Amino acid sequence: MKIFISLITLLICTGAVFSQQTISGKVTDTKNNPIEGANIYLEGTYDGASSDANGNFSFETIEEGLQTLIVSMLSYESHYEAGDISYFKDLHIKLMESVNSLSGVTLTAGTFEAGDNSKVSVLKPLDIVTTAGAAGDFVAALQTLPGTTTVNEDGRLFVRGGTAGETQVFIDGLRVFQPFNATPNNTPTRGRFSPFLFKGISFSTGGYSAEYGQALSSVLLLNTTDVPLQEETNISIMSVGGGIGHTEIWGDQSLSINTSYMNLAPYEALIPSTQGVRWNSPYESISGEAVFRSRGEKSMFKLYTGFNHTNLDIEQEDINFDDYVRFRLKNNNLYFNSSYKYFFANDWSLTSGASIAWDTNDIGMEEDKVDNKETSTHLKVKARKNFSNRYDLSFGAEYFNTHFDETYTDADMDAFNNGYADGLWAAFAESDIFLTNKFAMKLGVRATHSSLLDDFEVSPRVSLAYKPGEDGQFSLAYGDFYQRPISDVVKFDQNLEMEKASHYILNYQYINNGKTFRTELYYKDYDRLINFDTETPQFNSVYANTGEGYAKGIDVFWRDSKSVENLDYWFSYSFLDTERDYQNFPERATPNFAPKHNVSLVTKYWVDKLRSQVGLSYSYGSGRPYHNPNNPGFMEERTKSYNNLSFNWAYLIDQQKILYFSVSNLLSIDNVSNYQYTNTPDVNGVYNGRAVTPPADSFFFIGFFWTISTDGNSNQLDNL
């Protein structure tokens, strides 16, 4: 019996030896350089080996049939070979470098990020409120970046030769339909929103994502804070008003509320009458904002609402009238925005949201009255799938609905009504593809249909990025962009097409040790712009999509916060060459809002002994074109250059209190924005003219900010 058992054992062992398989091969990178130390093993077994200095490996196994061979190495993507084990011989396995989210290439063409968690940030959120001359307005701070133009009589964002209406604003991915306060003609406006409620800003000067549309030049994305850091109460007392805000946190939910009141009577009393302005009733505004947040284990819900009421009564000088022209305005704006994001298994996420805005204006111009009301909604849903750290896909659909009604009543009490209703559908798809740590691309497409215009358009979007070294990278972007004509046009004529712009962008960015250098070449091709044959859009104007134009230039940005202790500064320069044939232009020309050269220098210096931060901001713009009817040619004259030096000083009283003082246009320079001429010549055939100087170019501001934290950890030093 023992002999029999021994024979059986011997046969089994012999069979095992005979059934062993040898697995062999070589591991290299994509350039055929050998990789030492890679782990090679059969899935679900202990059979494996490591590659040697030449990348070679070999090991034996008794496994048979279909198997999965896994090759893994730090900093490389894992490789899988599936098949019959008899074929796992003399393999040549090439491992691809894994994409590192901290050091890999990023897609940055045309986009400035402002956020503490973004590795490509050029601004921090608090830069919005600590930049001299900005006075807490995010738009004024963004005007220190290249690609923007300071149009001091308007205050909105003018980007790379585009009008202010070519830039759209979004909160948490949803459209804000009236992002700026209402003001009279030739008086700059401000954004409606408090920068303290937002965690970050993405400002695209061109070539933006296929997720967004209805903007020929630019989009500004504002993202509200997900989770506030602490409960606190903020109190501000200013020379022109005051405000109070509070944040309450309970569990995974939080609520932030801000309200403010502004009355410019102290400031307006100082405006010299030589600027052609008389105030019957000072600019007065009351506003409020609230953000509710609820965070689940795999979800995030936000509800944002903002309200603003503005009232003013002003008289302005007009060269075509013997007396001042009276302008009265009452504006009410209410905005709601809600978004919900859920994270599923297998790296799927779904985001849905809706926004709605009501905006009413009661306008009086001498004896004439204009009453208008706009109701706008935006519905959106987007899905996103991360297939790996190399590839993701997002796609979605959205719907915009706008109802606009306007009644014009003249001095004889004759009323004229006009308006429109539009339903605009859009669908988009976009993918980020990271081929290596050095090369990535973004491919997207957007389709849009307007029921008002009965117009369907498809917009391709492409971005490429290459990183030749550790700190610098090149980016390239192209895209087509469409936008419905403005309300002042489509309320009279709907037999039009969408206006179009094509963007071409080449970008280089370098970030290292507190220093950021960025330069960008761009070209924009405009087509199908709106022309009309009257001075302004009117009910009897003839409209057509026959306009066209271009904008090209270079933007340069440099920021350094390390070279000099306690000093942080940035410098921006933009060169712009643009012409367009649009509106009532008789020929293609450079518009008044587009100076050729723009320069900004912002400095912030912390003085430890004085517990203070002092800052200076300087802005320069070359002369802006204007039309002088006394000379031949169109838009061939130039104003004098724009200069603005602003100063701010913030004193840290203690960890909870800041005293803040700022002066805009410290040198009180009269910056001429344009020239106004009489409608008819005098007896000598001369059109008399006068310079147009915005009344609000100089501004002083004194504020006291007090933060009360319930946990006692408030530190206002962080706000400097």
From TrEMBL:
Residues 315-666 form the TonB-dependent receptor-like beta-barrel domain. Keywords: Cell outer membrane, Membrane, Receptor, Signal, TonB box. Residues 119-214 form the TonB-dependent receptor plug domain. Pfam families: CarbopepD_reg_2 (PF13715), Plug (PF07715), TonB_dep_Rec_b-barrel (PF00593). Its main location: membrane. The keyword Signal applies. Belongs to the TonB-dependent receptor family. This is TonB-dependent receptor. It comes from Flagellimonas yonaguniensis.
